[in-house]
Amino acid sequence: MFTTFPLLVAVGVGSRLALSLALRRRYGLSLEVPQVLAVGLIVLAALPAWLTPVSLPVPLGLVLGAVLPDLLLRRA
Asked: Does the record carry Transmembrane helix as a key word (predicted)?
């Protein structure tokens, strides 16, 4: 049985893949997030609620799944 975290990562990767394919097919654009911004989003999602300077109401697993391709793959 999967726990919530891997399921949220899978949803994040799936939504990122669907959005990327739709943008590429419809407009010919590629979706990229700079690595610095991706790491910043992960850090904001991982901080406890009382410590965050800006509220990010998205779970860590979903953020990690959405920006994971940008952290693992480097496009030229």
From this structure: yes
